Amino acid sequence: MHGFLGFDHSTLGGNFRYWGGFNDIAQHIAADSGREVFTAGVGPVSSNYDRAIELYYQIKGGCVDYGAEHTARNTIAAEQARPAGKCWAADPANNPNKYPLALYPQWDAAHPIHLVGHSQGGQTIRTLIQLLEKSGAADPHCVPQDELLKGGRCGWVISATTIATPHNGTTLRDIVVNWLPNASTLAGLAVQAMGAGGSAGTGFKFRLEQYGIGAAPSESVSSFFDRTRNHPFWSLDNHDSAQWELSPDGARELNNWVKTSPDVYYFSISAHATRRDMTVLLQGMAGEWVLPSFGKPGMGSFQQTAPGRVPTDARWFTNDGVVNTISMAGPEGSTIEPLNGQPRKGIWNQLDAMPGFDHFAVIGWGSNSSKSLKMYDNLMAILSKLD
Length: 387
Known about the structure:
This protein is α/β, with parallel strands linked by helices and 387 residues long. The chain contains eleven helices and nine strands.
């Protein structure tokens, strides 16, 4: 499961992959382990709830339904519960609408899966497990139900592994907002100007049909832009979005209802790098000051002490260029233990950190690709013993 601004294997013609760059981590794992390995593509800027729902239907098959209760709570952007354009076929022999094929339609308790997420993808797979099981505080164990949004899909997930995930948010979000207060709005205008808000085509897809941010087949770019101009989805007040849940405050809100299941093995992998270790793309925000705008604190010095906000102090300074390392081990309030021997269910089993690896090196981008493959080999050695 990819992270913020991520993409699936079909994007960019498949020449550059999210998982591996010019290599293919999924193929590497499949060849080495003999397992089926799938890579998903969901809303790159959507909330973890929306992404988790999309991930469920993409794996299992069917048409996305975000649920009436969820959409009623998030009226700021007029979200639709059942948007067109987000369906997957479970049976290739019965696919009159020629939908994309579901990844693993036999998925159930008898055919459980392992989930691996990078960056926001880790938040997303945690959210999916919560929706599958719908564990309650009074009875933390899964109770069978019929519908996805009622939970009860017990035993469908064996393990969840998160790689460089901002479980407790990243200060980078607040740094960008403080530096460029209109960054989200400007991003929205760019998406609208390109007409790239939907899921069609082979280019980058924002998959925002649920908000009407998807051009109709016969709609001109100018007509689409006029119709979606200043769409409230891009507002910082919209909490049903990635930009909110990637902040420390938004992550705290997510963690209030997305809990650690007692029936799943959780693993976390952390990364940290000096600016010298990072790609040029990441160096500007990672250090003590944002460059070239001197005087604005970067991730290496940013602190938050305002009342009611999640406090961030010097413990948050170490980062991988995108996420604070302290946020990667597991959600605040959960049990986190270094893996030493047999992993345990219902806690966060922390694997060895990846020093010298920036946020994209852990998914095989750049010169450390061979070393990142070893990380996945080690992970598979652990997961293979859990089936």
